[in-house]
Task: structure prediction
Amino acid sequence: METVLQTNIADFQPNRGKVRDIYDLGDKLLIVATDRISAFDVVMANGISCKGIILTQISKFWFDYLSPDIEHHLISDDVAAFPEPFCDNSEQLAGRSMLVKKVDVLPVECVVRGYLAGSGWKEYSQSGTVCGQKLPSGLTQCQKLPELIFTPATKAERGEHDENISLERCCDIIGEETANYVRDKSKLIFTKASEYARSKGIILADTKFEWGSVDGKIILIDEVLTPDSSRFWPADKYQAGRDQESYDKQFVRNYLESINFDKSGPGVELPDDIGAKTSDKYIEAYEQLTGNKFEVPVS
Result:
């Protein structure tokens, strides 16, 4: 299948993020997940086949699964139900687009961590803290944490890095009541999703959620519990004390580290085998989580 690096709809100019093309339709948005891939906050020169479709379908699965617990922004992923001219562009949009409610986006990312991994492990090994929060001594790499921790971050502009912040700073930015609400809801849906994923043989180590306000309500937005926003590990290969295999773009990160990529400037062209292995991991995550065989939508 041809890799989609950007979409082009007549008379509409999208806001292009690292991965998504976002079309403003007034009181709604059309969010299209392209096959662009970023690593270290840099967009690579080529994409990952079917990645945008997989991300969208995983998000849709979780929105449906979590809907009894939280309101979200998804209206429809059926191209035929989109307004004109989008409904006439299924070859670009099928499987990779969502019509969503337009919201006032909360300017923080809500990160929930269940395991000591990534930047959290690096900080803990130096100071015994994760995002400034003191943890018990003696924990090992990728160990399950005694309890979930909430580590909010500011939302970075393209090409910049998110900045971890304290709950107190989060309260300053979005207000104490709102901060406590998104903290508690983020933990609640992390717990539900984690239990479900574990039943499918996958460990949810950490993830980030985004929230927005519409009609006086705080609702879940953006992508949800995808390999781009989460750290998923195969449970049967898990062992604390070392790095884990993962269902994400680790092949891309490892390749970039191997060529001493400076993590800035223009992205590089990824070798075909790196792209293929990464695509396979995304498909594996989708199939194991949903129980469905991945099929490319017919436009």
Notes: The chain has two domains: 1-102, 105-248.
